[in-house]
Amino acid sequence: MLDLGLYNYWVVIFLMMTGLYVVISRGNLIKKVIGLNIFQVSVIMFYVSMGKVRGGTAPILAEGIEVYSNPLPHVLMLTAIVVGVATSAVALALIVRIKEAYGTIEEDEIRVVEGEEEAR
Amino acid sequence: MTSHVILRVLLKLLIPVIMLFALYVQFHGDYGPGGGFQAGVIFGAGMILYALIFGLEPALRVFSPNVLRTLVAAGVMLYGGVGVATILFGGNFLDYDVLAHDPHHGQHLGILLVELGVGLTVAAVMATIFFTFAGRGRTDA
Amino acid sequence: MIEAVWALIGDDLPALQIAVPLLAATVCVLVRRPRAAWAVAMLVAWSAFANAAVILHRVLTTGTISYFEGGWPVPWGIELRIDLLNALVLLVVTGICAIVLLAAPRSLAAEVPEEKHYLFYAVYLLCMTGLAGMTVTGDAFNVFVFLEISSLSSYALISQGRTPRALTSAIQYLVMGTLGGTFILLGIGMLYMTTGTLNIVDLASRLAMVGPNRTVLVALACITVGTGIKLALFPLHIWLPNAYTYAPAVVTAFIAATATKVAYYVLVRFVYSIFQVSLAFEVNRLDAVLLPVSIAAMFAGSLVAIYQDDLKRMLAYSSLAQIGYMVLGLALANVNGLTGGLVHIFNHAIMKCGLFLVLAAVLLRTGSTRLSAFAGLGRRMPLTFAAFVVGGLSLIGVPLTVGFVSKWYLVLGALDAGLWPVAVLILASSLLAVVYVWRVVEVGWFAEPPADAPEVAEAPLGLLVPIWILIGATLFFGVFTSLSAGVASAAARMLIGGAA
Fold first, then answer.
1. Closest CA to B92 of C21, C18, C88
2. Which of A71, B80, B119, C43 allows an S-S link to B36, with CB 3.0 to 4.6 Å?
3. How many domains does chain A contain in total?
């Protein structure tokens, strides 16, 4: 049975599989990096969903409020976002260099060029 | 680059506000939502916006790559330096209590310095990433 | 003066192990001169090594060290926790970092443009920060953060290779590595969901209370797959051969000896310290997956290695086989087997690092690491080639070398588990190692160099010294095993006994 009360986790799984599929199926390196980003974002969403407390508010001490969301997963995801940004930056830098070296960012075309070099 | 009059005029008004807001987020981080990371990103976005509209060369004249690279390192050093300082004052790594006579003041000072380090590094890294990508191919070509 | 400083920092060694390389990396960025940056890196790496030795000594004499970052007690704060297991891994990681740095200037000069050297050392130190951080931390999320620090810097290091293929290898590793890291993050998230804590000790006790359920099972699966990618466990290894082959020679030596070892440590830590034997092996049957996979890795790695023409690639595939041995030790889930796996962290690190440094020397002198470049090398670079032979014998597992020690414990472990076919397979796969090592020995000693071959001198001292430190260590620790195997078996007993 689908439990729609937990729909955010279904979204997480959908995004995760989308990301994974894009990474595996696409030969274009930029698209691969986009797939990776989707994959990472799904995990970020997973953590954020986990930290949400129903009826809870932002975790800032204030009068008259008793229920707070759990701030810890959110803070962790701040770090995960930084990691994601850094990964994308490194990946894109590598892709720029690959484009300069091979003249293409399609994996199968890169493989053709590499094969020619190997043969020489 | 010369034509976008509306954008240029608007941005001249907006960029100082963006940077001021970054500073607000930076220093209000002790009391409310905010902190070095968010502030750094906002400040970096301000720099990137400037480069987008006014071109890379003027932006690089303001924030030269060497200065940015130094700032990246300086931010990390400030962060780590606070940690080492707390050790030398006799506490654990990043134990801010020992930074001032009153532990509360110590915590305050410590978090302020650490967040400043984070903010510096993040802003400089954001700008460096953008400028590096934007400048690629121009100097080489 | 020294005593006063020691009184201040003596208790903070675990934190300094992370903080000092991080700060030194920024110093390297600021000084901008290759020699100065190298000097900074050397100073830091060797003091980190000394630091790790002091920590290991302290753990051996007074037991587990626990350190609270920022003075916040567990479970609120982040704990650095060092027991026998990670003290040993820390010693290996920092030791390899320090020794490889000895060889770095000579070897880098041939492969990386001079103006990039200072950044190279900065990234190298960052990688070391990440690896040391992963090892000492007692917080599951910190493991992920430091894992990414070390991974991102290793992508950058690998991409510095001479050919454009270094770039494609680096991005292949980046894609795989990020998937692996994210799987680990997901697994940690599920553990946090079931227990509400991230501290490793706390996690273990609460998981034992929660008992088996599906979230825990999925968490175990995610973490196994994630670390499996990072440690290049067959069939998740496809990034490894390219990355090792096209990276600069010193980077290969460094990464081969540290990154996969630390990933293995993470797997051991999660399986034995957090899930513990009952949950991982008795309820969820992790060994049913890892045992066949590790045996397949032993054979696939060795078999493919036999057919490689490029020796760097050959050693990379041989690493796959050696990783198979390590994971086999984990999957056997008894004291002797785990001892074999853990001691192989130490043993494989020193011998593989030594072998890859030999290739760095050959590359420096002949400009190639292909098998043909080795023709007649036994006479032209006798000391270097002798080092290769000793390292190769250790890969095979000949007595008096460290390789024998690991295999001895693995075979004992397999027999303890009642799996004598596994013991036979371990010995059979060693025979495959004989084949690929012998190919090189044959070419090096018995083949004549081509007539038009340029005159080749013995490797420079800068490379010979680190090579023979490591190769000497493979012989020394092959005979005197109290440091490596002694600590490893004590750690194994601690890990398995903790579950009983």
1. C18
2. B119
3. 1
The answer for B33, left when phi > 0, alpha when psi is -120 to 50, beta otherwise, is beta
User: Which pLDDT value is given to residue C500?
Assistant: 39
Distance from CA of B3 to the nearest CA of C (A): 39
> CATH code at A22?
1.10.287.3510
Q: At C368, list the tokens.
A: 């190639």
Q: List, in order, residues 6 or more apart from C305 with CB less than 8 Å away.
A: C314, C315, C317, C318, C320, C321, C432, C433, C436
Are B37 and A93 inside 8 Å of each other by CB?
A: no
How far is Cα C153 from Cα C432, in angstroms, rounded to an integer?
Answer: 34
HSE at residue C38, side-chain half, CA atoms within 13 A, is 18
For residue C398, the SS3 value is coil
Please say if the pLDDT value at position A4 is more than 70.
no
**Residue C267 contacts residue C289 (beta carbons within 8 Å):** no
Is residue A30 within 8 angstroms of chain C, CB to CB?
no
Q: Tokens 């050392």 correspond to what residue?
A: C121
- List the single best residue of C144, C154, C159, C175 to mutate versus A (max A Cβ within 10 A): C175
Ordered DSSP codes for C32-59 = --HHHHHHHHHHHHHHHHHHHHHHHHHH
* Domain span holding position A49: 4-119
Burial class of residue A55 (count of CB atoms within 10 Å of its CB; 0-12, 13-18, 19+): exposed
3 state DSSP class of C68: strand
Q: Is the pLDDT of residue A11 over 50?
A: yes
Residue C451: its pLDDT value, please?
A: 66
- Per CB-CB distance under 8 Å, the chain C contacts of A94 are 155, 159, 167, 170-171, 174
Q: What residue has token string 């400089």? A: B124
Reading the block at residue C51, the tokens are 């630091």
* Residue B40 belongs to some domain of the structure: yes
Domain ranges of chain C: 286-500
The predicted structure's pLDDT at residue B141: 37
Looking at the predicted complex, does its ipTM rise above 0.90?
yes
pLDDT in tens, C151-187: 999 999 999 888 888 898 999 999 999 999 999 999 9
* Helix B103-135 / helix B65-88 crossing angle, nearest 10 deg: 160
**Within-domain flag for B141:** no
- In tens, the pLDDT along B35-53 reads 888 899 999 999 999 888 8
The reported pTM is: 0.91
Rounded CA gap, B118 and A3, in Å? 42
Per this entry, what is the length of chain B? 141
Q: A8-17, A67-76, C410-419: which range is least confident on average?
A: A67-76
Structure tokens at C198: 């991230």
Count of structural domains within chain B: 1
Q: Supply the pLDDT for residue C94.
A: 92
Q: Counting beta carbons within 10 angstroms of the beta carbon of residue C482, is it exposed (0 to 12), middle (13 to 18) or buried (19 or more)?
A: exposed
Cα distance from C100 to chain B (closest Cα, Å)?
Answer: 25
Q: What pLDDT digit, counting tens, does each position of C202-252 carry?
A: 888 888 888 788 888 899 999 999 999 998 888 888 889 989 989 998 999
Name C120's Cβ contacts closer than 8 Å, sequence gap at least 6: C108, C112, C157, C160
